[in-house]
UniProtKB/TrEMBL annotation:
The Glycoside hydrolase family 3 N-terminal domain, residue ranges: 24-313
Protein family (similarity comment): Belongs to the glycosyl hydrolase 3 family.
Pfam families: Glyco_hydro_3
SUPFAM superfamilies xrefs: (Trans)glycosidases
The reaction(s) this protein catalyses: Hydrolysis of terminal non-reducing N-acetyl-D-hexosamine residues in N-acetyl-beta-D-hexosaminides
EC numbers: 3.2.1.52
PROSITE patterns, A to Z: GLYCOSYL_HYDROL_F3 (PS00775)
Protein's name in the database: beta-N-acetylhexosaminidase
């Protein structure tokens, strides 16, 4: 990395949210953060031993980032409840989205609010929830009980309550997986789902919960790695300007932070060169690239981001617009924190 412009690396590193190994801030992790200069870190069960250990970890790294990077790091997690719960050992079992939907909006708000308050206490400011995919038969679908249900209006209503409660309790919400994985039959963790038989009109019902999320002021949206042939038969949603720039930002009016789903998933990993991922994603108005499982995946992406911003005016402009959105998210995050003290 020594041959690259450090000033550019610092700016483009903000696009990366990284997973990492271990439960302490050791020299290897310190070197990795100093080299890659990410905008955030994503926590998994492998990073968590106890409440005391996790608090010490987030505080130590956050303090280091302010000193070394001269900017804060955002901490993110998938704490949906049910089968996707990284903090089960600390928080105890939380109900799934399906269980919360069945229990009703009051219990949903109480559960989501309590989770968000605990996340804030642990130093976590972004939760990749709620799931807004419409799932007809959870026992047959790979998302299972992670969905709030099959009805667009009810999922929209419950999703808005989830978002307002979570953000009102101090944690930025990220609605996923845009524009909807409900029609997919293959899990992007293992395959590339291709949906070629659905029209834009048929997909419109899957957009309804995301319309509601935007109306509720959701801070973030996470992309889907599936291919939506009605809008773009060539690129997965994550890399598609037609899906993200035209539909999400253009049609739905979303102005917040757009996260990729994990780029280490098999739907994307190894299918595209880092330069292609960067060009397509920036053009599609993606702000944050998640690299959570394979540590070797991050450096090629950072190099590609560096070269994109240095060599291509259109990508430099896309990067600058994205940086403004990231700045606004930081302001929102810390405004919420101050308000809740």
């Amino acid at each position: 990395m020594s041959s690259l412009d450090t000033a550019i690396l610092d700016r483009v590193g903000r696009h990366l949210f990284l997973g990492f190994q271990g439960t302490s801030f050791d020299e290897e992790l310190r070197y990795r953060l100093k080299t890659l200069r990410p905008g955030g870190l994503v926590l998994f069960r492998r990073n968590i031993e106890s409440e005391e250990q996790l608090k010490a970890l987030t505080e130590h790294i956050s303090s280091w980032a302010r000193e070394e990077l001269h900017r804060p790091l955002l901490w993110a997690i998938d704490e949906e409840g049910g089968t996707v719960q990284r903090l089960r050992e600390i928080l105890g079992r939380a109900p799934s989205a399906a269980e919360l939907a069945a229990a009703g909006p009051d219990i949903l708000e109480r559960s989501v609010g309590e989770t968000a308050r605990r996340l804030r206490q642990l130093g976590i400011s972004v939760n990749f929830a709620p799931v807004l995919d419409l799932v007809e038969e959870p026992h047959k679908h790979f998302l299972g009980t992670r969905s709030l249900g099959p009805d667009p209006q009810r999922v929209s209503d419950l999703g808005q309550r989830w978002i307002r409660t979570q953000q009102g309790s101090g944690v930025l919400a990220v609605a996923k997986h845009f524009p909807g994985l409900g029609p997919a039959r293959l899990d992007p963790h293992d395959h590339l789902p291709v949906m070629s038989g659905l029209s834009a009109q048929e997909m419109d019902r899957h957009l309804q919960p995301f319309r509601g999320a935007v109306a509720a002021g959701v801070a973030g949206v996470m992309t889907s790695h599936a291919v939506y042939g009605c809008w773009d038969a060539q690129w997965p949603g994550t890399l598609s300007p037609a899906v993200n720039r035209d539909v999400l930002r253009g049609k739905l009016g979303f102005r917040g932070i757009l996260f990729t789903d994990d780029l280490d998933m098999e739907a994307v990993r190894g299918r595209f060169e880092p330069e292609t991922i960067v060009r397509q994603a920036l053009t599609a108005t993606v702000d944050v690239f998640l690299v959570c499982q394979k540590e070797g995946s991050a450096e090629p992406l950072l190099r590609a981001l560096h070269d994109a911003v240095r060599r291509h005016r259109d990508l430099q402009d896309a990067h600058q617009r994205s940086t403004q959105r990231l700045d606004e998210a930081l302001v929102l995050c810390f405004d919420i924190s101050r308000r809740l003290r």
